[in-house]
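Review form for a predicted model. The reviewer records the input and the model, then writes brief findings.
Reviewer: anonymous (R2)
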Amino acid sequence: MSAIGIIFSNIHDRSVSELTRVRTMASIPYGCRYRLIDFALSNMVNAGISTIDVITHYNYQSLMDHIGTGKDWDMARRSGGIKILPPYISAFANNQNELYHTRLEALKSINHFIAGMTEDYVVMADCDVICNIDLSDMINAHIESGAEMTFAVQKKTLTKEVARRNTLMKADETGRIIDISAKPNNFDGEADMCLNIIVASRRYLQQMVLDAIAHDYKSLTKDILIKTLDRRIYKIYRYEGYSAEISSLEEYYAHSMALLADPDKYDSLFNIEERPIFTKVRNSPPTYYSETSDVKNSLIADGCIIDGTVENCILFRGVRVGKGAVVKNSILFQDTFVGDNVSLNCVISDKNVVIHEGITLSGAPTLPFYLEKRKMI
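Model under review:
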């Protein structure tokens, strides 16, 4: 059995437009030292996948900087490894010179790569869902079932707003998908929500992409899956662990704060011994806590200098909190500078933000106050 990985880095950029103005969805910081792509990458690496293609769209400079040669994931290899694929890199991939908007359009744009694949199976993942899934078990389940495609799902109780942003799947007792609802408008209640992780047989994927090009299909769900349910075998794989879907700035904030409120959620992501989450390693000095500092229930990365009070916060590398400053329930990205006697509550600051002394900023748990990259107040 051999498998290749495909990661879609830009598919959900519009969901968190505040954070994706200067980066891809894949490179959004998370959990004080990680990026969202780290979960998809690590899940594949832990499953023994040694060739991973990352399909990009735009704003991928920070993604390239984060991945580098792939050595932090043990993917700096002569054969295989991590490849970043820019959009429409062949002259005939897209006659209209338009960027893709869907997963199927992205696959069509790298058709020449897909046509050259020799692995038996293809594992595809988006970057909007955070989870630590055993992909080896999912691939084995796919092989045993004889399905063309297998989709990771999780049973959740959904509100109408959440259901409207997701794909819901209904399966029979054998796990075969018998109905698919793509972003339903009036559904609420319990359902199997697709986690945007797919295992496909390589031959079927190649055939599907060629068929999509021939018929100008744009949506994997609406143009292919729903129309072929009766003649193709699609199955579900139930995931039972913790997962978090990032579909808005508010949800990004809520799921980040959940890591502080519930240690079990943090452990289910980062403390599974046989499935570690890898990320880029930087040689930063340890964080310095002065005699005036007071830190409670927070995740703080290396290289920070803390002189003030930090409570229920997530601080990335290089953050500076001045004397007399009080920072609560906030997420501060890399190299944020908080001056003396500043008061922050429910604030998300992007990279290289400077907040001068004496400033007071406050949002709310359902509407965090966001400061864009390099903002100076």
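Findings: Residues 263 and 269 are 10 Å apart (CA to CA).
Further findings: Residues 202-215 form the longest helix (14 residues).
Recommendation: see findings above.
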